[in-house]
Amino acid sequence: MQRDTVTDPQSNNYKWFVLAILTVVYAFNFIDRQILVILQEPIKAELGLSDTQLGLLTGFSFAVVYVTAGIPIAWLADRSNRRNIVAVSLGIWSVMTALSGMVQNYTQLLLARLGVGLGEAGGSPPSHSMLSDYFPEEQRGTALSIYTTGIYLGIFFGYFAGGWIADNYGWRNAFFIVGIPGVVLAFLLLLLVREPPRTVLPNAVENEKASFKETIVFLLQRPAFWWIALGCSTASFVGYGNGNFFPSLLIRNYGLTVTEVGIFMGVISGSTGMLGTFLGGYLADRWGKRDKRWYVRIALWGLMLSLPLSYYTLLASEPLYVVLAYTPAHILNTLYLGPCIAICHTLVAPNMRASASAVLLFVINMIGLGLGPLVVGALSDAYIPLFGEENLRYAMLTALTMGTSGVFFFWMAHRTLLGDISKTEAALTGMTAKS
Are 361 and 199 in contact, with CB atoms under 8 Å apart? Predict the structure, then answer.
């Protein structure tokens, strides 16, 4: 008999309930990660920071801990209870976000952000692995894209609420208010979500685990994975680099308040990001039934079509023109991630998915999150003698130009994808035969 209670693990709808919970967790991941971006102008004024220091806080220092801790956590996730790892990680990053409101100097804020990065490292790889076990391959792109919309839910609430709280109650209270609810959510996750059985090959030994070395060797034989990782990294380089300084550009060069920027970034960036991310996964699953290369084509065409709109966004003279160009550009810029994560899971064995996600996120976040904001911040400081008050605008234009290399990387992934999928299918057939 079919069960109707969505929270019943035996219900056909339970996997969608789990997806909803994990998407909310991912939203909190980005609320706590991006809250600093909307608060960085008042923080810069109070603590006397440079743009380079802001780039270190929002990018490199966070990313180093985030990606370094992500690898061993993913290795653990391939061997233990993934639900528990996500819950503990959520609790850690939420507490560290709240503590950020108590800092008195740059060093203390840096240490708090390192703590947030450590906690958030345990969020995505175990969640990716769980969702790949809950959903069949033909629904995986849609599921992972819905999960990825958590980024933009987080951006929406982080920017919208963070800007308003900062203008009305100060930036310190903003950290407290967004950090504490995550601790409550961690307990709800433990109560409501069940660890799914892991996908196994027919006749395979269920308890067999792949070592991290085996996963790396497996991935090294599949160049499409690395081209996808580089394509996502360059898109992320621009997304994080320019995205983290876009609120500052609107405040400095267009005269908007923190609340106004929070509304703009929250509503426009959040809604277009969710639409683009969901649309990317939906179209990839729909068109990918005929040809798996659509999982990469969507990323390639999205990036190519977004470039002229992105340039105009940074060069527009009035806020209205910024909005008109930014809206379609951001939809196109956010098509890539869900399909790329999904197809990377197709390139590996089921017992390698969390580790493969960690490797993918390591490359994306080290290049994108680690270098993007740092490069933009450093260029902004360096461009002051050349461009004066327009320094940040030209730093962001430089980063956008550097990011055009993603077109080449996605094109190379498109060329090599089908051959690498065939290699994986043959390898999985061999594993089944040996068992």
Answer: no
AA letter at 293:
R
Any residues with CB less than 8 A from the CB of 260 and at least 6 apart, and which?
163, 250
Question: How many structural domains does the chain have?
Answer: 1
The single residue listed with the structure tokens 């969608």 is: 16
Cα distance between residue 385 and residue 387, in whole Å: 6
The tens digit of pLDDT for each residue in 166-195 reads 889 999 999 999 999 999 999 999 999 998
The pTM assigned to this predicted structure is 0.78
Q: Nearest to residue 228, comparing CAs of 420, 423, 424?
A: 420
Q: Could you tell me the CA-to-CA distances from 295 to 2, 29, 280, 331, 403 in Å, in that order?
A: 33, 25, 8, 16, 20
Please report the sign of the dihedral spanned by the C-alpha atoms of residue 297, residue 298, residue 301, residue 303: negative
pLDDT digits (tens, 9 = 90+) for 364-380: 988 998 999 999 999 99
Tokens of 380: 């902004």
In a domain, 233, yes or no: yes
What's 142's domain CATH number?
1.20.1250.20
Q: Which of 114, 17, 10 is nearest to 68 (CA)?
A: 114
pLDDT band at 144 (very low <50, low <70, confident <90, very high): confident
* 84: in domain: yes
Distance between CA atoms of 298 and 313, rounded to whole angstroms? Answer: 22
Domain assignment present for 202: no
SS3 call for 177: helix
Residues 6+ apart with CB under 8 A from 204: 431, 432, 435
Contacts of 45 (CB under 8 A, 6+ apart): none
